[in-house]
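Worked example (supplementary).
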Amino acid sequence: MEVAVEKRRELSDFRRDINRERRRLFVRRFFSNKLTVTGSVIILLTLLVTLLGPLLSSYTPYEMVVTSRLKAPSADHLFGTDNLGRDLFARVVYGARASMGVGLSVAIITSVLGMIIGLYSAYYKVLDHVLMRICDGLMAFPAILLAIALMAALGTKIDNVIIALAAVFTPYVARVVRSAALVVREQTYIEAMKAQGASSMRIIWGHIAPNTLSPLIVYSTFIFADAIIIEAGLSFLGVGVPAPDPSWGNILFDGKLVIFNAWWMTFFPGVAIILSVLGLNLFGDGLRDLLDPHTNHAKK
Amino acid sequence: MQHEALKLDSDHGNGSYGTAAFEARPIIGNAREKLLDIKGIKKYFPVKNTIGVTKKYVKAVDDVTFHLYEGETYGLVGESGCGKSTLGRTILRLTDPTDGEVFFGGTDIFKLSNSEFRKQRQNLQMVFQDPYSSLNPRKRIGDSIAEPMVIHNIGTSQERMERVFDILEKVGLHADTYYRFPHEFSGGQRQRIGLARALVVNPKLVICDEPVSALDVSIQSQIINLLEDLQEEFGLTYLFVAHDLSVVRHISDRIGVMYLGKMVEEAETDELFANPLHPYTKALLSSIPHPNPKIKQEKIILKGEIPSPINPPSGCNFHTRCPLATDICKQAVPKRVEKRPGHFVACHLAE
Amino acid sequence: MGDHLLEVNNLKTHFRTERGKVTAVDGISFHVDRGEVLAIVGESGCGKSVTAQSILRLFEEKGVTSYDGEINFEGKNLLKISDSEMRKIRGNDISMIFQDPLSSLNPVFTIGDQIMEPIMLHQKLSKKEAYERAIEMLKLIGIPAPEQRVHEYPHQISGGMRQRVMIAIALACQPKLLIADEPTTALDVTIQSQILELIDSLRQKLDMGIMLITHDLGVVAQHCTRVAVMYLGEVVEEGDVESLFENPLHPYTQGLISSIPQLFGNRNKKLSIIKGMVPSLNEIPKGCRFAPRCPFADAKCMNEKPELETLDHNKRIKCWHHQTIKGAVSNAT
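After joint prediction of all chains, the assembly is encoded as:
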């Protein structure tokens, strides 16, 4: 009995070591990849600004001071003020909440829905025909037009922006998951599980799903970025986040009217959009390299 | 009984089993009891034309009859596309059989409902050809091996873990394999893992689908020896599907030769190699390059290629390549005849 | 010296990988003469395919691959000549057949187009002449109705047929050296024997030198004249086929030969095995590379590298103990 206990202790030590080694290796690979590091630094900064927004600015985004309309950037107003005399820095920082919030929620919702739809349509042929035809139909519309139509039907509200964008992007995610799952479904280990009498539930969620995670995670970072752009587009067109709540898109809209005498009103929200989207895309590209099994030579 | 089988025998402590753990099963020579009796098994795959109407069938397995004795190794040989792998998969109902009966322990397993058959699956295990795709890359080896026990509700998680450590030792792998992932292992080691996964639930029959053909020569012999040791220890019956005749000769007690979905010849190994009766078997035996440069072989080089199983030739489907074919071969399908005790052949011309 | 068709001297091929520099082929030397078949035998990862591809300089990525040593082909060092000269040799003087006949043929071109391409490229023949030559080649390799086959696409023909077409492409310019990398591994035995017979007869007709890379010792014994056994990037033994099979000196060669199941004789004997497995190129043993798996290894083997010694009858061996081992084996059997 003693021997068995000893052996088990040895093994649990081994398990700890192996997990530590694995983490170390991942961290090393992560930091050796310039894309992921740059991307994640940008995203972290953006997220930090989003969360700490109120602490960074002494103004609120709604406070109008009629006397100081369209002031150029200065020490007092870091990004200047807008046409209603609101502090632009505060509005861009608070706008990040709308943009990043919408982006993140859309990425999460589409991942979950896309995964369920993708996995089941890859596994059941009949379901595949039905679900994929619906996806084809949704994908036939240009994303922005479909989003506008949905917003027109739902009404301008930030929750509805999320719902509309989730509806727009889910088919794309489902396609990605489905094609990954179709490859996995043909692997011998799936057949081995069938030969054991495993239920469909176990095969789909226990075996196929984990193997579609890496393309899904990569793709969802791109969805995150796309959602930020489309949200800005919707708000710019006046069917997104309703005024007076700030969003990068509706600040741009306000700035459009005064673009020739107040450059800062279009410049700063524009830069915010570019930076966050760039950060996410870099992160996604890096993540793809990192998770790609062909480049993943773990140590023996 | 299952729980019993899983308990670690504490007297031994080092992970070996008590004799009660595995029921002793008769090995060859004792009562030659049929473990698996396969009668007229057929598997046709429909071929759909452009508008989705099925007119033709690929006759992957066409009316094959044979049986496996308990404790023996039955080798199934043939070239690619002859249906030998499909036959193995059809027996395990990994693909729906078109016709036929397969008796296992007195019941026709083709007649069982899915849920009834699921209970039988632990007795009928499979080892796959490709060691790289047969393990889930995202699962630890221990979890992969334990999974069949989870599916069949065997033991507690602690007992399952003990059992996995035990079986790892049996297939010659270090205990730390438990926590590792498949990509850390070579082909030969993965094949050991595949074997461990098949044996963890105490099966009676293991269908080995080309288990060594993806491996290097020196690793191949390690796995073959392991298969033999495990058979002896656990009293397993193997259906050994392979295209390499020298491997099949080494491991099998009896051999069935398949060509284009049909079994053309069946005999005990020594008998088959000494007196091949079917012209296809003869050609097959003569075309294996002999690993001795002094022996210059007289090869029977078959003309042409294996015909498509969608439109198999009429009569004896080997007649298009057979050096001896006559008119009767083109017209009538040869019957399976027992020419000598235990030596069956389907050929009009065999004496 | 100098009159060999191909002479490889101390060839080394290095790859830069994520985990540092790896030497896949480490100082190998061998030669191929006209009209002979040299077999390169070894298990996966021994560097046999890398050797073949190094001869044609198929790894050209700068900064990733680097070569050392010489590859002399008809007096020219292939490692020194320019890329454009190398392109003239590839497919013209030296041809290669690959293992997988499906992925080595381009699915969007007809078989005829693919046979004609090297002919038009290297021999500067007109399209019409090249077409006639293609038909001739298809006849030569025993494809029935070549006038129809030239217009077919790779997916329309079977695996054995595709490998024949690969051979036709490789032989279209009547090369002096043919490198065949596992040409029959993906094929069935009855088709394999057809293909090997074909290569044999073409060799005699065209007086080519052939370098046959394989892991199948049966193929080696029946179809080759000389053998070089590779292990972990090195040649460990080289010699005539007959002497190598009859009297293998290196423990690795002995292990390989005795671990294959026999077609004749007692089949109930346990197979002998080579313990362990081929180490990765990152963990090359310090002394003799085979020492960790060798049943005869002692302290000397573990620490000191043996050299490739030349014995009589052109036999070469890399082992500290080949003389004592020889005795041990003949006593045991």
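Two points are worth noting when inspecting this output. The radius of gyration of chain C is 21 Å. The first strand of chain C starts at residue 6 and ends at 17.
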